[in-house]
Amino acid sequence: MNKLGWGIIVTGIPLAIAIGAVIAWYGSTGGILSPTSRPDSQTPPETVIPVTIETQGGRDVLVNPSGRVNPNFASLPYATLTLQITNKATKTHNIMVPETGASTGPIAPGETKSVSIVYDTVADLSYQSANAPDQIHGKIVIRKQA
Q1: pLDDT, tens digit, 9 for 90 and up, residues 128-144
Q2: CATH code given to domain 43-142
Q3: Are strands 46-56 and 80-87 parallel, antiparallel or unpaired?
Q4: Model pTM greater than 0.85?
């Protein structure tokens, strides 16, 4: 074998392996070449759900965008679930998640505040109004994606 053929083999094979590795890594990151863009190091998504506090039948209730009263919410471990709460009732409310200590603080009528929940394991959490826990209450279900 001549020197040119041997040079092509010695250089071409490692170069082909290196190009293949870069292409595989690039594909596994969704097309972003950065050490922090690997799928196993990405943070889970954040979900923002706009909800309202309304007075229905003489009681203040939490209502989701589809009109469901005191609904259950679902999230994944390590994902952020943010409830963006607008108070359309006449009383001030403070929505809290007792298991995590998360709270909106007082939400006056006409005001909007948010509460964010991040939990690191599968669990059933609860939310409630500190001012009217018998009226505004529900669950936040943290489950792994099937």
Answers
A1: 999 999 999 999 999 88
A2: 2.60.40.420
A3: parallel
A4: no
